[in-house]
Predict the 3D structure of the following.
Amino acid sequence: MNSLWVVVIGAVVIYLAYNFYARRIDRVVIASDPNRATPATMYMDGADFMPTSRFVLYGYHFKSIAAAGPIVGVITAANLWGWLPSIVWLMVGVTFIGWASDYSAIMMAVRNDGNSLSAIAHRLISPRTRTILFVFIFFYLLLIGGAFVGIMAAILDARPDVPFGIVVLAIMGVVGGWLIYRRRADLIMVTLLIVVVTLAAMALGPLGVKFSPNNQPPPTWSTGVVSGPVLGINNALNGGGPIYSVVDPTNADPRVPPSGPDGKRPQTKAYNPATGAINVFPSFLFWCLFLLVFAYLGTNLAIWRFAQPVNYIGFWIMALTIGLSAIGAILAPFTNPGVATFQVQAITGFAPTQATGAIQWLWPMLFVTIACGAISGWHALFGSVGTARQLEYETDALPVGGGGMFSENTLGLLSLTAVAITGAAGAGAFAGGVGKLLNVATFGALPVAFGTALGFGSFVVIVLTVVQLVFRVMRVTLGEWLGEWWVGFKNQHVSSVFGSILVLALVLSGTWVYLWQLFGASNQLLAALSLLLVTLWLRSAGRNPAFAGIPMVFMYVTTVAASLITAYNLYATIVTRAGSAAISVIGAWAMIIVALLLVAAALLIAWDAWKAWTRRPAEVQPQPAPAGGD
Amino acid sequence: MPDRPDDEPAERPGGLRGLAARFREVTYGMAAHDMTRYALRSRASMEHLFILITMGDLVGVPILPPYYSLRLLPYVVPQISTWKRRMLREKDLTDAMF
């Protein structure tokens, strides 16, 4: 297997799925009509509702849904089950579930006056469903915040060549915002300046560091121009040794090093292969706080001053890195077949053995580990509020919503390629793969070590973009929820700090892979809920709901099972494990409670949905949108 | 069923120029459409707050004496329908998220 086959498989499956399945559903079941007025044209207000070109909207929708999800999920899944199940789920998931969820949520909102999923849930199922949807959203935000801050802090702690680029990104964000909005400087010149400087800072991370094949001996970070001082800071902080240790029974934590040629994992500062303990050092806490401060600035400064320009730089870095890597993946089989060949195992089995007894069955765990890229509830939520209100014609929903999802799937395939050609695990494998592909794409002009640093930097930038959004939304959520109980939560600083404390507690006490899998479960439950709403809506409209209903049942059962297994894993491998640190046990219990709450919420929704299903369709018949044409 | 309305004029030039225009639009959509949208929403919020203060009695919130409302009315007329639609629309948490 090599990268070219991934490109071929992806292109063929997406072509067939889009043209022969998605188009048919759009034409026959939904019957999108370009002559029917959309909410954007009916309620145009120049802000929320505004008809927009489908090409602009496609770019907007794709950028809003494509982030770190398809990268992190695929990295973790390829490590746990191999590349074959990962690619099968990516392709089958996007073909039969992913695009259908995104597209139908958008069309449902379009046909319901641009109402959000929560408003439609309130009407089609019950008022309680809307409240439960908010519970999902809150846990979703908390878990994704924890998972992303955890993985980024581990990278910044382990790779002293990465933080400099992130600091420069923050500075360039402030400079860019000031130049664009205050000085009214030329956008193209400002873009060139801030993007080139940030990219240069990221690529310069390894300057002066000596790298060896297979990292044996490890890189000489102390000799690096950039990495040397960062390592000095880490060492100064870590003088007193580790604070405590945690355990990841699946070894998917980014701090666990990949196995060497002998199949054994080497001992590192953070990892003890004999006990499986992952040491938590003060420097890890420091980088967690660094990221939370970054997110705090993105959440509370005027959006034009920091978050927007940082995300703008992030977009260009992501586009350049991903675009060049994709070119590298296509070229590599011809110019450098050794690089293109997959090194990672094809399949590790249905129930790969975990030394600690953790259950990681392919079903259901794979289906929550890879969420974005195959199917994601977040897309449906965003699509119903953000995209549906800007569609000029109903017929634009398929290229925008469905097309955006298929495009995101290609990002997942690229991540899988990057991980598989490196033959290792974790974010390091992704960055290593990107480094190799960039080397191929630039015909050797960019050395692998610098490309790898760029891969790490790009990964952190992509994640940071999401984390800023997550904390901003969490601030709004806390203000809306708890603001009635105590007015202090309506203060943006109080709610931001409170949200940060919750996330930090989760990161420090939790086990990364369980955080990720719980996040995946909440995301997929959101997707199942979205498909459930679509099913009820189609039934009430007298149309065949099978294309949404069958995937909904599968996702519903799968995610409930995955949540229960994660709760069991937490109990069996951390709570009852001899020698677990008290903080780990507390974190495990917190996550068990979250998992059980998700299951309880899902069961309540199922009950309410069943009652809605058995109601006469006329009772839930939505008001038809007024036709604008004939 | 065609994917464009019956009465829509020819969309955009074909060939390389059309391709370049589409590429520009997609790039703009990815890079800056959310920024534009945020700026528009901020401006709309400010304007609608102003109209609420001055023309609140149109939705049953009498704040300013009618004299001043009447003086400002000609300037606000073009936005009243949009404002009432946005003001009276049911909103929840998810509307504030994006």
Summary: Chain A touches chain B through 54 residues (CB under 8 Å). Residues 222 and 228 of chain A are 4 Å apart (CA to CA).
